[in-house]
Write a structure and sequence with these properties.
The chain is an all-alpha fold and about 130 residues long. It is about 75% helix and about 0% strand. Helix 1 runs antiparallel to helix 3 and helix 3 packs across helix 5. It starts with a helix and ends with a helix.
């Protein structure tokens, strides 16, 4: 189970790293485009003639991009939590199935895992155990 947790953590870190890299690359591209636009202006009067609607459009675009990145981050965390839950259900079903004595699940679970038991679906645990 620890190996599965490690794998899940690595996958989650990889997804979040890719998400941050995409966001940083987009931010750098936008900043570069803005700087290039400002450098193209020959004087201060040329800067005043830049389209006034470009700022609200840029802000709106950045807000949309931030929302997309936030949604993807939530999806990443949801996938991680689901993977942890599946690993726990599998582990519990394996432990209870292999238990030769009539131990309760709580007794078979090490103390450090007991807080995780609250994340398990009550019916999913028994259904997974019945499948075995």
């Amino acid at each position: 189970m620890q190996l599965e947790f490690g794998r899940l953590l690595l996958e989650n870190a990889q997804r979040n790293l890719e998400l941050l890299q995409r966001g940083a690359a987009q931010g750098l591209a936008d900043a570069k485009a803005g700087i290039n636009g400002l450098q193209g202006a020959a004087d201060w009067q040329a800067l005043t003639r830049l389209p006034t609607e470009s700022l609200p459009a840029a802000v709106q675009r950045h807000l949309a991009e931030s929302q997309t990145l936030g949604q993807q981050a939530v999806q990443n965390q949801s996938a991680f939590a689901s993977g942890v839950q599946q690993a726990l259900v599998f582990w519990l079903s394996t432990v209870t199935h292999r238990s030769a004595e009539s131990q309760t699940v709580a007794a078979a679970m090490p103390d450090w895992l007991k807080p995780w038991a609250r994340l398990l679906p009550q019916q999913g645990t028994t259904a997974a155990a019945r499948k075995e």
